[in-house]
Amino acid sequence: MFRNFVLTISAILTLALVSYAQLSLPGEVVEVIDGRTVVVVTSSGKVSVELQYIDVPDPAQALNSTVKDHLINLVLGKRVEYRPRILSNGRVIGRLTVNNIDVSQQMLRDGAAWHLPARVSGQEKNEYDIYAALENTAKTEKRGVWSVSTLRPSWEVRAGRLEDEKRTAQNLYASNVSPRLPAARRAGMWSDKNPRLPNVGALLNGYNAKTKTGYIGTSLLGITEMEADKLKLHKTAFDIMYYYKEDDRKGRTGYFVVNLLSEAGKWRFLEKNDLVLVVNDKIDLVIGKAKRTTVNDGLTMREHLAYEVDRSAIDKIVNSGEVGLKVGDYLIRPSHGLQQLLYNLLQASE
After folding, report:
1. Same domain (yes/no): 143, 182
2. 236 near 223, Cβ under 8 Å?
3. How many alpha carbons fall within 13 Å on the CB side of residue 290?
4. What is the pLDDT of residues 210-233, one digit of tens each?
């Protein structure tokens, strides 16, 4: 029932967006969330719009606030035309124009953004060439992001960071939790392609043909901290993985793991680290205590909590309404996009 429902809703959204994308909708920008995301008020209400085909420095990178300020000067409080292009993980991405000027193109010309590669964005060649020419001009003039020689495109930084964090999590889990996967995690160990694995979309995956072991899972997902935790410089992220082994007779067998990573000035999960599934603000399932590993460099306390969970628990997260994961006294509210990712994960793990 749920699978049919998801497919039906996805089809409706896709068809609606295709029709919707033929229209440019008038509105006013009332908020700039970051260097490429704004809130537009239209006759139908508010909508968050991500500027198409560009990326900007992440919060930890140089010029992040400068780029946001530049976008504020370009669009805040101004009448705009908004043409949606794609719906991705709950975000609407599209073309935003002010006085018939494409804001994405203006950001590139001013050196306030990087142009996404066509292999990532799927941008058509004619339009891509226009965007690329504007970026090249800014690059030649060393404007904005091109004025800092060490500044790398944010997608490269994120990819490197995710790969490092994923490798760390896998190493910790293999060495401290599971004897069923090889402890060694040398470069290239998971670089093989699994011919039996279906298309997993946005999910991460790796495979070792020699040992017939692999993993499928979400990327490391950041968690929006409470205001009190922000002041204490807490950082928290989690992912959900499926580790498996393939056998010619038994097929694919494995288990699911919830990983929670924390950085703080003190131990946050030393005494309380039970994982509990909360549905509609009520305790639904107690999963149990974590396999906990720690690193203390004298300034930052890093904790990795790993929980092996049943397939039924992942299924509950996918199929329930308001879902939360509670670790000790800390409640994680997953984004709506996570349920779709986990639905795909369940499909791929069969």
Report:
1. no
2. yes
3. 25
4. 888 888 988 877 776 554 444 456
